[in-house]
């Protein structure tokens, strides 16, 4: 099977090889109609850039480093799918690192990425990372960096995030409208950006509906194993226990569901449960889990597009900004309204 080249595309479309090359790079110098014509033809013939030839020509590795806390986390696996799809079509390959929620490992990952001469870095911070001086040092050396999902506002980069505040507000409002008044919030380490934003959304919904914020209903996890059970026990032992649980992660949602089942707490008859999750099996759980879905794949795609813009130093590369992607509330059986006689 012969390999399709830029010359083949140029000959077939009767345009110059330089026009084809610029169109494939998404250059602002080429009009939209020509770009679409070239991209459609290239896709039809399954054209793929030759990374080795490109790296020699441009003195770049055509590699992008991606550091995530954990690939096994369904959100990050979806985000990586989005990153790889775009990167592959743009002639880049992706090197993936896991920090395993460790600051020390994140810093080591970063050094490994530099040793491999990546052209840019996508990063979602570990749960231990509060100091971002290691990333600032890289940025000062000229390495393009884009943060996604878990981000630091102390680092002047583009940040691609879900609308965590809006999603948490929608989840809490839904529980209130279903008649719940004592809504517990199980969340992750308090210094993470996503924790702060989801807690703020939860508090704002309570305030809007005149329900006082009660900090005894909030519990912070550490990504440890089997930590949900004790949190659920503490909350159920309160003088006025919760009638609903809103969890801020996949792991906490599953842990909370299992803990409530073990304690013979009926969902949604005794308590409601809603997650902030990307679980693809949420509708298969018993009961089917209401959830706020984050657009993980889209977050990955936009993050890598912004990074490639920075790498290729396009004239129209967007300045650093925070891009918020809308979340989506899916209501299922676990938050059904219950009428008590």
Can you give a write-up of this model?
The protein has 341 residues and is α/β, with parallel strands linked by helices. It folds into three domains: 6-47, no CATH class; 52-160 and 296-325, 3-Layer(aba) Sandwich (Rossmann fold); 164-294 and 328-335, Rossmann fold (3-Layer(aba) Sandwich). It has twelve helices and twelve strands. The chain has helices spanning 6-13, 17-25, 32-44, 51-58, 74-89, 103-115, 133-140, 164-177, 193-208, 228-236, 250-262, 296-311, and strands at residues 63-68, 93-98, 120-123, 145-148, 158-162, 183-187, 218-220, 244-247, 272-276, 290-293, 322-325, 328-330. The strands form two sheets. A six-stranded parallel β-sheet has the order 2-1-3-4-5-11, with helices on both faces. Strands 7-6-8-9-10-12 form a six-stranded mixed β-sheet, with helices on both faces. Strand 3 (120-123), helix 7 (133-140) and strand 4 form a beta-alpha-beta unit. Helix 1 packs across helix 2 (17-25), helix 2 (17-25) packs across helix 3 and helix 8 packs parallel to helix 9 (193-208). It is elongated and about 75 Å long. The model has no long low-confidence stretch (mean pLDDT 90).
Name the features.
341 residues; alpha/beta; Rossmann fold; 6-stranded mixed β-sheet; 12 strands
Outline the secondary-structure elements.
Layout (H helix, E strand, L loop, with lengths): L5 H8 L3 H9 L6 H13 L6 H8 L4 E6 L5 H16 L3 E6 L4 H13 L4 E4 L9 H8 L4 E4 L9 E5 L1 H14 L5 E5 L5 H16 L9 E3 L7 H9 L7 E4 L2 H13 L9 E5 L13 E4 L2 H16 L10 E4 L2 E3 L11
Helix pairs in contact: 1-2, 2-3, 5-12, 8-9
InterPro entries: HTH_LacI (IPR000843), LacI/GalR-like_sensor (IPR046335), Lambda_DNA-bd_dom_sf (IPR010982), Peripla_BP_I (IPR028082)
Pfam family, one: LacI
Protein name: LacI family transcriptional regulator
């Amino acid at each position: 099977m012969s390999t399709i080249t830029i010359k083949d595309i140029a000959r077939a479309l009767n345009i110059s090889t330089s026009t084809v090359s610029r169109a494939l790079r998404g250059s602002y110098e080429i009009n939209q109609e020509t770009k679409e014509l070239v991209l459609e033809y290239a896709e039809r013939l399954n054209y793929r850039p030759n990374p080795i030839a490109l790296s020699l020509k441009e003195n770049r590795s055509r590699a992008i480093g991606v550091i995530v806390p954990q690939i096994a986390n369904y959100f990050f696996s979806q985000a990586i799918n989005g990153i790889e799809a775009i990167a592959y079509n743009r002639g880049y390959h992706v090197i993936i690192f896991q920090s395993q929620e460790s600051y020390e490992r994140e810093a080591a990952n970063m050094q490994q990425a530099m040793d491999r001469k990546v052209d840019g870095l996508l990063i979602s911070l570990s749960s231990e990372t509060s100091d971002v001086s290691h990333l600032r040092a890289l940025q000062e050396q000229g390495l393009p960096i884009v943060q996604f999902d878990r981000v630091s506002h102390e680092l002047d980069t583009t940040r691609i995030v879900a609308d965590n505040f809006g999603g948490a507000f929608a989840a809490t409002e839904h529980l209130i409208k279903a008649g719940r008044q004592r809504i517990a919030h199980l969340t992750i380490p308090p210094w993470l950006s996503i924790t702060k934003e989801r807690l703020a959304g939860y508090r704002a919904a309570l305030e809007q509906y005149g329900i006082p914020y009660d900090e005894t209903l909030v519990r912070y996890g550490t990504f440890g194993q089997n930590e949900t059970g004790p949190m659920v026990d503490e909350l159920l032992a309160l003088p006025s226990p919760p009638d609903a649980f809103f969890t801020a992660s996949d792991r906490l949602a599953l842990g909370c569901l299992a803990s409530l089942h073990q304690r013979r707490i009926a969902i949604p008859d005794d308590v409601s449960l809603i997650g902030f999750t990307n679980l693809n099996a949420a509708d298969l759980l018993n009961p089917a889990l209401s959830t706020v879905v984050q657009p993980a794949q889209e977050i990955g795609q936009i993050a890598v597009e912004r990074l490639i813009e920075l790498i290729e130093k396009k004239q129209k590369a967007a300045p650093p900004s925070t891009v918020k992607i809308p979340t989506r509330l899916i209501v299922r059986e676990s938050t059904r309204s219950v009428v008590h006689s």
